[in-house]
Amino acid sequence: MKGWLFLAIAIVSEVVGTSGLKASNGFSKLGPSLVSIVAYGASFYFLSLALRSVPISMAYAVWAGLGIALIAVVGWVAFGQKIDGWGALGISLILAGVLVMNLLSKSAAH
Q1: What's the rounded Cα separation, in Å, for the pair 81 and 38?
Q2: CB atoms within 10 A of CB 100
């Protein structure tokens, strides 16, 4: 269970890092640049801790899938970026894939 908590922290850190990357304007703003670097470091650190107990295929699918969905929401809310129907469908399919892997796949078993 601790592995999944570490994975959740890794996902949130990655979303913070990507948001900082956008806000840094190509690393031209110091504050958001530092936030991005620290958050990405934390993300990889906690992902490495999660990999001690969560299978790598499962961890990466969840990390990438939820990261994509969350950063799309952050982009919409914080940066005014649009999500059209096709984008929402694509994100939904990614999330459906993550759910299938977690709920139905035997690769989730330890």
Answers
A1: 25
A2: 11
* 61 in Cβ contact with 47 (< 8 Å): no
> Tokens in use for 38?
């620290």
Most distant CA atoms of the chain, gap in Å: 46
Long-range contacts of 1-8 (CB under 8 A, 24+ apart): 2/53, 3/49, 3/50, 3/51, 3/52, 3/53, 3/54, 3/59, 4/50, 4/54, 6/46, 6/47, 6/49, 6/50, 7/46, 7/47, 7/50, 7/54, 7/59, 7/62, 7/63
Query: Each residue of 25-53: pLDDT tens digit?
Result: 999 999 999 999 999 999 999 999 999 99
CA distance linking residue 71 with residue 76, whole number of Å: 8
